[in-house]
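Below: protein 1.
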Amino acid sequence: MDDVLEQLQQIFRDILDQPDLVLTRQSNAHNVEDWDSLAHINLVSAIEKRYKIRFALGELQDLKDVGDMIDLIHVKLAAK
C-alpha cells in the first residue's frame, strides 16, 4: 500500500470515526459512509496539517476521489 494512502486511511478513520475503514484510490464521498461536506472540511484540514501543505480551493474542486488527492499530495510535497 502506498504510504500516503496508508496515512490518509488513518486520517479518514479518525475523522469519520470508522476504525475499520479501508480506503482505495477509488474511494470518494459517494461510497464512503459519513463523508459529507463537514467531514470533507475536517479531512482537508487534517491532511494539510499532517503534510504541512496548503490546497487552493480550485485544486480541491477538481478532486474526484482519494487517488486524485494522493496525486495532488505528491505534487505538493515534490514542490516543497
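Below: protein 2.
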Amino acid sequence: MSRSAPAAEAAPADPANGPDAAGLAALFAPFAAHADVLLAVSGGPDSTALMLLAHRWRTHCHATTRLHVATVDHGLRAESRAEARDVAVLAQRLGLPHAVLDLAAPLPGTRLQEAARDARYDALAAHAAAIGASALATGHTRDDQAETVLFRLMRGSGIGGLAGIPAARPLGTLTLLRPLLGRPKAELVALCQAAGVAFAEDPSNSNPRFARVRLRALLPSLAAEGCDAAALARLAHRMARAEAALEAATDAAAATLWPGRRDGEEPLAFPRAGLAALPEEIALRLLGRAVAAVGTGPVELGKLEALLAFIAGLGGAEQGARTLAGAVVRVNRRTVLLAPAPARRPSGSAR
C-alpha cells in the first residue's frame, strides 16, 4: 500500500470536523453497551476515520467504554509492516493501546480475499478475547454496502443476502459492530484529510482480478442511471426489513408445526399438509431450518428450492427421500421427517 498524504489545501485539524457531539453519540451508541471495544484499523481511510471518530466520541461524549486498536498484518506486501507501525503511531497520539497481529498460518493461493478476510477476523477475535473486549468494530461504509448488495444481486441471492451487511451481528462470543455503514467513503477520506492524518492505499482495491473491484468500476455508470450507493443501501435496508418480517412468519410456522420441540431433538417431523399450506417463501425457510438443525449447516437457496419442488411433486400417496447437507429427508403420505444422514462408509470397506 502506498501512503496518501493529506491534500495540500486541507484545513488544519479541527475537533468539530465531522459529526458534532450529538451526532457522535448517535453514531457510537452501540459502543456504550460494552466496557471494551476493539477497533480493527488497517490504516486505510475508512478504518482510520473510525479510530478518529471513536476517539472523539469517547472524549466529547465522556464515554466510559475503553477503546483498543489492532492492525492485522497479512504479510502479503513489503509495506504492510510499515503501515501497521503508522497506525500504532496515530493510536499512541490518541492515547489508545495498539497491537499488530500476525496470521496463524500462511494464506492459500486461491480465493485469496475470502481467505484473508476469514483469517483477519480469526486473529481479531482472538485478540479481543485476550484483552477482554466484548465487541469488535470495523470501518465498513455505505460504499461497501452498495458493493455487497450488487455482488449478491448478480449472484442471485435471496432476500436475506440482499439485506447486505448488518450494522451489528454476533461473531462467536463477540458483537461485530459497523458504525460507519451509513457514511459514504468520500466523507471519511475528507475527514482524514481535514484532520491532517495520512492514510494507506491498498493496491488490491484497484486490481481487476478481484470481482469486487470489477463491480466497483460499474458503480459510476449505475449511479448515472439513479442506482447509486445510496439507492443500493436503501434497497439493503428494505430487504433487511422484509427479512425480519419473513423470519417472524417462519417462527410462527415453526411454533405451529413443531409444537414443543426442543433444540437438538431428533428426528424432526412436521405434517406434509401443513408444509404445503404455507407460502412458498416460508416453507423454504422452514425446510432450511429443519435441514440445518439435523444436518451439517445452512443450505444454499437453490438446493432448498429443489427439495421443496421434490416434496410438492410427490402425489398424495407417494413416498420418497432425499439427502441434503448431512440430513436425510423422508416424505410419506402424512409427514415430512428429517434426521441426520447415515455416515458414509469408507471406500473399500467390507459390506
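Residues 1-16 have pLDDT under 50 and may be disordered.
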